[in-house]
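Any chance you'd type out a single protein's sequence alongside its tokenized fold?
>
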Amino acid sequence: MNMRRLDFVEGTIRPTMVLLFLLALMSFYCEEEELKIIIPPHVPTLAITVDDVGVTEAWLKIESIDSTALGDIILKHDTTVVLTANVTTRETLVVSEQLLPKKTYIYKAYKLTNNTPTDSTTPLQLTTMDTTSHNFTWTFDTLGEWPSSILYDVAIINDTCAYAVGENDIGDSVYNFAKWNGTKWKFRRVLYKYQNNEYYSKLTAIIYFNENNFWVASNQPMHWNGTQWELYDLSANVFNGYVSKMWGASSEYLYIVGRNGAIAHYNGTEWKKINSGITLDIQDIWGAKNPKTGEMELLAVASDKYTGQGKRLLKIIGESVTALPDSGPRTFVSVWFTGERNYYIAGSGIWKHFNPKRNIPWRKVASITTFPFYTESIRGNGINDIVITGDYGDMGHFNGQTWKSFYSQTRNNGTYRSVAIQKNLVVAVGDNNGKAIIARGIRR
């Protein structure tokens, strides 16, 4: 059989053809852009922002970007776990405590799935506030004579001027107003006119706006307008009883509180009675602007400090009053806060709350060994600069991290009934064995 080799020329791939094909392919890719794989950026399902920062606390807002982020989360700063919780709302406000002053922290929040982190927020950096100094030098004055000299309230004007009100028996006359001029105390008698006659009364409260605009009060409020005293004769159905304290943002937004649950509001034109719903004596009032909402917050405290048979923490909005939860202290007589965050009440101890509208007990923040006596007054420059005064000459300062007692320097057998602080000056007033007493602390 004859056999013949068949050459399939048209279907044969020759080496020269392969080379030409590769050169053409290389030329094609050189003319085009490089081939890129585009990976979409990761979008976290959680976000974290700073709401506020204190000295040893920080308030953080954790936000769920979408509903898939709801559920279990964990919050950390550095390697420390701050919170593990089940989130059921889009926004959650968290307080991180036990921080150090003037220290930078980095926070992250993680979404947990079966206890395993599956997503996290962008890192958040914040720095806490610094503390203030405890270094006060104290000077003491005794005014008036036994048995009726006492000072109830004080206002600091500047570092060389302060006003105090009360009743001081000085020899042949009785005075109800004292002014410190930076060197010594000078006495005045503030008289009010009623039916063309002048009358004297002890003064129990003062609030100062400027040298031509400040108020004092006894059972009636009086306003110094720069020229003369104006008496506001409030009838019994507007305000019944002695004024214990005054607070206001201005003379057009002023409140007075006092005995038998009395509260009245002045709007710059007229005084109006506010029904407190209680008959307890209201001991103190304080207000501050909420930095988040811009609205004014006002709290008042009422209690029977001697028997401990009743107490009320009152929130005032305009001309309405509501009672807030007050579990914790047995009694309280003074209140101070900055608005939105750090709230303090004082009396049988010193107590703190982050949000008194919530039904969570107040927390005692100073030990009985540090301040063993009844606390009468609390005021502050800020959350890192707070002073308290009390019975037996007790005096203390909070620098944002620690409480310091000055009792070894300020102690006596009397009571500092009111205290004021402005910048580096503290003035406390009260009485001891029938004489008025004043303590002035200057921070160096």
